[in-house]
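Because discrete structure vocabularies remain unfamiliar, it helps to consider an illustrative case, giving the amino acid sequence and backbone structure tokens:
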Amino acid sequence: MKYKIILLATALIVIAAGAYFYVNRKTQSLTDSNVDFKISAIKFLEEYSSDQVLSDKKYLGKVIQVEGNLKEIERDDKGSLTFVLGDLTSMSSVRCSIDTTVVIDESAYPVGTAVSLKGECTGFNADDLGLGADIVLNRSVIIQNKN
């Protein structure tokens, strides 16, 4: 009986410790991480549009450096920034959610500016109506302002 109580108490401590570390873990910045692929925003969109399954196998979960023209910068209600890259005449885009630990002066990046960012590829959102599609990169950081 005493053995079962000790075993149960040990199991509860291990579970509680695991839950604590899971909830309080820190996401590592991609600032110093190596890039798995370097690609232009337009080529990236072309690859995903032509074969999503193959592109997912190639890019999902990888750190991608994407270069392209800035279509817009979005700020959500929590203050998080997203840089939207691609052809200014197209509805499709590469959406780079900026790492929340990075401070960016938005005014330094007007629409049309050529930028290079890297982030983790988390997927492709195809539009069934053919109005455009988005590739999503999370935890993105700016590599350089090319202008």
